Amino acid sequence: MQLGLVGLGRMGGNMRGRLRTAGHEVIGYDRNPDVSDVASLAEMVERLTPPRAVWVMVPSMVTDAAIEELATFLSEGDLIIDGGNSRFSDDQPRAARLAEKGIGYMDVGVSGGVWGLENGYALMVGGDAEHVARLEPVFEALKPQGQFGFVHAGPVGAGHYAKMVHNGIEYGLMHAYAEGYELLSKSEIITNVPGVIKSWRDGSVVESWLLDLLDRALDEDPELANLSGYTEDTGEGRWTVEEAIRLAVPMNVIAASLFARFASRQDDSPAMKAVAALRQQFGGHAVRKRP
């Protein structure tokens, strides 16, 4: 199958490689000429045979602009697939705008990171059944072999919604491992923290790919001494918690893991200074002054 691919960064570039290995023709465009197959979006579209299918794999903050520009070169019957981490609520308005031009739209939540080239990607798809069927060869090539790794989650927006929840769960899982790691590292009786983590990788109910990656990180830096604790978030955790509030779903673990990321960015927490001041005021408890 022939596919246009916009955005050839860490994810998009590896997806192009996996699709080509499976025998598909991929014409990729990126603003970085060193990785792009063509000089412009217009050239990419020109090289595709109608009806065209173009997969957009760019950061969420520029997705709308990229799709709007791309749509100016497309024709009725063409199809755009957004595989980036867009907010699900953007999908249906975007699909409606494209439908006015006769252009189809699908949203795909993609998980797999930099390991997807080798292992395959988990794909969560939102869109019409006819569009899903049209892209089935592409999905089959990108997903891992076997029965898992793909779902048509529902109509437009469902793919990104599923990926949002997926990433919220990821926040909670990562933080549980992180808290366990910290407790092990503070313990007086554990002398081999990396070894304990490694022992959980097989036969344990907490074994997972994330645990494997933590083990890999500890192999490279046993005390994580070369890393800062400052942790960013890319939005999906916030959106998940917002949806939990809207639907009155208790989400204690995921919310706490999101707030922990916020706390990681504070060198000297104003809130904790207020707590220290209050303890001193009502109980005369000692406080630590700045040197």
From TrEMBL:
**Residues annotated as domain 6-phosphogluconate dehydrogenase C-terminal:** 159-291
| Lineage top rank: taxon | Bacteria
- UniProt cross-references to InterPro entries, sorted A to Z: 6-PGluconate_DH-like_C_sf, 6DGDH_YqeC, 6PGD_dom2, 6PGDH_C, 6PGDH_NADP-bd, NAD(P)-bd_dom_sf, Pgluconate_DH
| Alphabetical keyword list | Gluconate utilization, Oxidoreductase
What does the record list as coiled-coil region(s)?
none
Top enzyme class, one word, equals oxidoreductase
Q: Give the EC number(s) listed in the UniProt record.
A: 1.1.1.343
- MF (Gene Ontology): oxidoreductase activity
The answer to whether the entry has keyword DNA repair is no
| Matches recorded under PANTHER family | 6-PHOSPHOGLUCONATE DEHYDROGENASE
Similarity field: Belongs to the 6-phosphogluconate dehydrogenase family.
Protein name in the entry: Phosphogluconate dehydrogenase (NAD(+)-dependent, decarboxylating)
Its taxonomic path starts at: Bacteria, Bacillati, Actinomycetota, Actinomycetes, Micromonosporales
